[in-house]
Design a protein that fits this description.
Blueprint lengths: L26 H13 L3 H47 L7 H10 L13
Helix pairs in contact: 1-2, 2-3
C-alpha cells in the first residue's frame, strides 16, 4: 500500500529525505585512499590514510550524537504512549493529551548543535 498524504499535511512521512542525516565524509575517497595504501604503501599513501582518521573520528562523534538524540526522542515518545494507555485504562477523559503533547514537541526536529549532547 502506497498511500500519499495530501499536500501541506502537518504530519509528513518519517522517511522524508530532508530529515535523513547525510554523511559528512567522502566515503569513496576514504576507500580509495585505503585501497591505494594496500596496493602500494608509500609514505604519501600512508600519510593520506592517516589524514582520514580525524575526519572519520569527527563523523563517528556526530553520528553518536544523532543516535543519542534519536534514542532520547524515542524514549520520550514511548513514555507518552505508555502514559496514554494508562490514562485510557484509568478512564481519564482525554487520554491522548500525553501523546499529543509529546508529538507536538517533536514535529520541528533538527539535528543537534555542536556539543549539545556532549559528554
Amino acid at each position: 500500500m502506497n498511500a500519499r498524504r495530501p499536500e501541506g499535511d502537518p504530519n509528513p512521512h518519517m522517511t522524508n529525505d530532508q530529515h535523513i542525516p547525510r554523511p559528512t565524509v567522502d566515503q569513496e575517497a576514504v576507500r580509495s585512499h585505503l585501497h591505494a595504501v594496500r596496493l602500494r604503501p608509500t609514505p604519501v599513501t600512508v600519510w593520506t590514510v592517516i589524514g582520514d582518521v580525524p575526519v572519520l573520528l569527527a563523523e563517528i562523534d556526530r553520528l553518536a550524537r544523532l543516535l543519542t538524540r534519536a534514542r532520547w526522542d524515542f524514549a520520550d515518545l514511548l513514555a507518552a504512549a505508555r502514559a496514554t494507555l494508562a490514562a485510557d485504562r484509568d478512564g481519564e477523559p482525554d487520554p491522548l493529551t500525553y501523546l499529543r503533547d509529546a508529538v507536538a514537541e517533536h514535529q520541528a526536529w533538527s539535528p543537534p548543535d555542536e556539543g549539545e549532547l556532549a559528554e
